[in-house]
Amino acid sequence: MSTLQAEHVYKVFARRPGDRAAAVRALERGADRDELRADGTTAAVIDASFRVEPGEIFVVMGLSGSGKSTLLRMLNGLLEPTAGRILFDGEDLTALGAREMRHVRSTRISMVFQHFALFPHRDVLANAAYGLEVQGVPRAERERRAAEALTLCGLGGWEKSWPDELSGGMQQRVGLARALATDADLLLMDESFSALDPLIRRDMQDQLLELQRTLKKTIVFITHDLNEAMRLGDSIAVMRDGRIVQQGTAEDILTRPADDYVASFVQDVDRSRVLTADAVMDDAPEDVPDGADGCTCPTVSADTPLADLCAVSARVPHAVNVTDAEGAVVGSVPQDRLVAFIGDEQRPPMACACAEVAA
């Protein structure tokens, strides 16, 4: 399990090295990147710091030109930071030579590209095994591992097919299998699902979440789609004009936006599909009805989406109980609190079993 950390990372594009260093100093003093652009200098990433915990999906989101893809390419050494450090399991990647960095890329860091990047003259199995071929793994071993990765990605039986025989979603699964076959510690995914139509895109999100429950990889996922970020990210960083303007969970960003930009960015998100009972529940009151008191009303778990919680609340004439895995009540969600979070009008609850008991 691997930890990735960025410490005050800058990436500046300029004609002369001296201009790049001077631009970093100006940015540290508070200069705006528009001021630098007038001199022909582009500040793509400005003072980016974050930490990705082992087994976490860390999503970097922002509009086009925000610097998110440039940031990703610095994480695997395709671009060299102008300033700052990138640490991977405590090792400073920015201090490695070109040969050492190539070894890290081929063995410990895999990348899944936006446009599949499959070789049209290689079959599915050979495409999935390519990273292992680069490592020098013997053919029988790399084909075995590639076949296992394809099966994990739902492509068992397609090993001898050609890329142009596959749908876009299937081609992206091959790209994901290629990354998984190397058993790299870190997966970098650059807008990996954005070229897919909405239904296939959601299927790929489901596939990634299912794989992550099993493999528990450390993943950095780049997207411009807020709903995708909210669905996938254990932690999310929002970028604007080269800077990370907010980091936190989906709940943090939805309920406590750092500024007007983030607030406007998230205003159209379906909160009922992102927030869960855990975000809105109160501490369990002492007199919560439970099975021992004859109440057979449905309960929810802490990770129940608000959309599903609403359906339960509509059938329960009291606060909905939130229970743990053993069935113990850990909290409750009053209907007025639920309505306040989703901004909907309150509807009267329907009769339920406990009302019949009381009668």
TrEMBL record:
Domain of life per record: Bacteria
EC number: 3.6.3.32
A biological process from GO: glycine betaine transport
Record keywords, A-Z: ATP-binding, CBS domain, Hydrolase, Nucleotide-binding, Transport
Entry annotated with the keyword Hydrolase: yes
Gene Ontology cellular component terms for the protein in this record: membrane
Pfam families for this protein: ABC_tran
PROSITE patterns (alphabetical): ABC_TRANSPORTER_1 (PS00211), ABC_TRANSPORTER_2 (PS50893)
InterPro entries, per the entry: AAA+_ATPase (IPR003593), ABC_osmolyte_uptake_ATP-bind (IPR051921), ABC_transporter-like_ATP-bd (IPR003439), ABC_transporter-like_CS (IPR017871), Gly-betaine_transp_ATP-bd (IPR005892), P-loop_NTPase (IPR027417)
Chain ranges passing through the membrane: none
GO terms of molecular function: ATP binding; ATP hydrolysis activity
The family this protein is said to belong to: Belongs to the ABC transporter superfamily.
NCBIfam families: proV
Name of the protein in question: Glycine betaine transport ATP-binding protein OpuAA
